[in-house]
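haha ok so turns out i had the wrong file open the whole time. this is the CORRECT one, sorry everyone. sequence first:
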Amino acid sequence: TMIRNSITLFQKCGSKSLTKFSNVQSFRNLYSQAFLGIDNYVKNRERVHSQFINMLETFKTKMTEFVDHSSRNMIFTEDLKNMVHLVEPNSDDVVLVVKMMTKFNKQNKDLRFGSFVFGPVVMRMFYYLDDPDNALECFLNPDLTGFFDQIASYQILMDLLLEHDRHEDILKVYEVVKNHQLHGMRYPKNVIVLLYASCYKKNTPESLKYASDLWGELMSVGHLPMRRTATFLAGLALNQNKPNIALEIIANTKQQNYMTVRNLKALALAELGRIEEVLLILRSVINTDATVDKKGTFARDSIEKIHSIIKSTNNKDFLSEFTSIEKYLAENGHYTDDSLHNLLCSEISLQQNAGKTNMYQHNVKMQSYYNKGNFSNYNQQSNKLNRSTRPGISEMY
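then structure:
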């Protein structure tokens, strides 16, 4: 297994022309560092390193001896916790962590002691190391069966794979998730969002067919996908010149006034030649001007595309009305310079607010409870959260 010699933290990105909305596109991590718990993992690395500053190599040597096949020594919870936060980006450290996990997992199966949930923490470690290869290998390792059976582990792994364009591996992980049906959940919403982000990013006829077929499956079992799932699929359909599919998907989205939904709907209608309805959507912004936020109503590249389509109709009445509306939108701050692609792929963060049912908010940071003070506090909180009805969220912290 190859480990990177150098790591650039929190700046991982891929670039590829993904859509026809803009000439230059980029794709960051989909879920925020705070959402995935990476920021708190980093803080705890610093804390653990400070505790082991004078005994780091001694500890690693001791653990290397403990994982030897001839050793009868056990790997305890604190040993693995510490090593997961002491690991450096070199093959020796990563091999040691994996051996410790394997031995610890076998111990837990045999003796059933210890309540600390390691899966998400280990995936944060691999995320920090920017090491999708070892993360996936451990996830699929039969010797670690059950170790990563948490929605949070799935999500962190899939986000890491997404950043590295590992689309086939994302499908492989999803099949495992689907077959496990953890907590009785065959379609965990955050996992589905990442799967559709992968299909959108792949941007091929095959990925559209896969995403469309899965959408039909989700609808047939009464699953209500998150808005981001719908907009990824609609965006993919538009990129694959299937505006009819995009329009049908958007029609099933409750939040019709949401900016990305409005943009996608207007574009789909324009490409279907239904210009009157496009103009109706544009006029609706003017008519509701007093009750909506004026900023960021339309992406500029969406309007430019619509303009081009209307111009190609050679219908002077359409063009005249569009020009008038376009001028109003520009003068009253209804444009954003962000491309529609960037809006679709904007970072997802988690907002802690008991009064809100929609917990997924853009650009809102929330500090998780994970290891804020010490590991014992984390264990107590983890046990409480494991009883939550929202395992995809609770296991993050």
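The longest strand covers residues 348-350.
again sry for the mixup
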